Amino acid sequence: MSSHYREVLSGLGEDVGREGLVDTPTRAVKALKYLTRGYAMDLDEIVNNALFSSDNDEMVLLKDVELYSLCEHHVLPVIGKAHVAYLPNGRVIGLSKIARIVDMFAARLQIQENMTRQIAEALMDVTGARGVGVVVEARHMCMTMRGIEKQHSSMTTSVMLGAFREDPRTREEFLDLIRR
Q1: If you placed Cys at 129, which of 36, 86, 135, 178 could pair as Cys (CB 3.0 to 4.6 Å)?
Q2: Which of 4, 7, 66, 72 is catalytic?
Q3: Which of these is catalytic: 4, 7, 66, 73?
Q4: Total-model pTM
C-alpha cells in the first residue's frame, strides 16, 4: 500500500524524496488502517458477554456518542455523533459496548444511511430488545472541503426498529430526549 501512496503523491506533482514526504506513505497506510479498523472487529468480541439481567423495561439512551468515519465515495472524513436508545427485554448491555458498536461500524468505508442501520440492527440482535432507535448527525467533508463547499451543512439519519417504529409515543419520547 505504501508504494501506491507514493505513486499518488508523485502523480500530484510532489517530490516523494523530500524530507517531509519520505515517510508519508507509511504513515498514510497506518492512518488508513486505523480509520478502517472496523473491518477487523467482531460484534461478539466487542460485546464480550456484557449483557446483564434486568427488570428495567424503560428506555435506555446513550446520547452524543462522537463518531469519525470515512465516506465510501471520496474517502474523506465524516464527523458526527450518534444517539442510541433501546427498550430492554430482560437484559441490558454494558454502556461502553454501545459506544464500541458505534465505533465498529463508523470505522468502515460506507454511507451514513447504512452505518445508522447497521448500528441499530446490531444492538437489536445482541440485546433482544423490544425496540431500538438510532439517530446519527454528521458533517461530511466531501460536502464542506470540496464539491459544493457548504460549510455548515450536516446530515441526519435515523433508524427505528421494533417499538420505536411501531409506537409513535416511544419514537417521540426518544426524539424528545435527544433534543434536550
Answers
A1: 86
A2: 72
A3: 73
A4: 0.96
Residues 123, 144: one domain? Answer: yes
Tell me, yes or no, if 72 is annotated catalytic: yes
My answer on whether 65 and 131 are in the same domain is yes
Number of domains in the chain: 2
Q: Is 142 a catalytic residue?
A: yes
111-153 pLDDT, tens per residue?
A: 999 999 999 999 999 999 999 999 999 999 999 999 999 999 9
Examine the residue annotation and report whether 74 is marked as an active-site residue of this protein. yes
Residues 6 and 54 in one domain: no
- Contact indicator for 87, 120 with CB cutoff of 8 Å: no
pLDDT digits (tens, 9 = 90+) for 45-75: 999 999 999 999 999 999 999 999 999 999 9
Which structural domain range is residue 174 located in?
43-179
CATH code assigned at 91: 3.30.1130.10
**113 has catalytic annotation:** no
Domain match, 27 and 106 both: no
Alpha-carbon distance 139 to 143, whole Å?
8
Buried b (16+ CB within 10 A) or exposed e, 129-142: bbbbbbbbbbbbbb
Residues 22, 60, single domain; the answer is: no
4 given a catalytic annotation: no
For residue 140, list its beta bridge partners.
78
